[in-house]
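Q: What changes when zinc ion is included in the input?
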Amino acid sequence: MNGDDHAQQHHDTSPQTWRRVIWRGLCRRCPRCGVGRMFKSWYTLEGTCTSCGLEYESRDGDTWAFMYVTTAGLTGVIIIAMLLLKPPSIMMGRLFVAVAAIVVVFLTLPYRKGMAIALHFISERVWQDDPDADN
Ligand SMILES: [Zn+2]
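A: The predicted holo structure follows.
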């Protein structure tokens, strides 16, 4: 905990704080303190924040809807891209979609996961009394 975090406590649900929390998620950092790492490897979550002790695992199940929607959305973008690009042959198009889907969906996984955890962290702040909130 530092002075900056302390000063922000009274503005927990302000848009600036939301942006900061989501940015932390995209950087795969702890949504609460921004210091601890979220993942110990490519896609293996740390159990808790190494810095402030926030539990990530408890949020795991709540991120599936977000992951599903963003995966579907990315797939849609890839399909639209293929239609716009007009591949020279059907086989080229299929190959493009397969490779693009694997690359895009896989490469963005931890970032989307981090964002999902950050969004869930925000939703707890906004709609519930979070016992973790009083750091
Ligand atoms: Zn933390």
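Observations recorded in class: The helical segments are 3-8, 15-26, 64-85, 90-107, 109-127.
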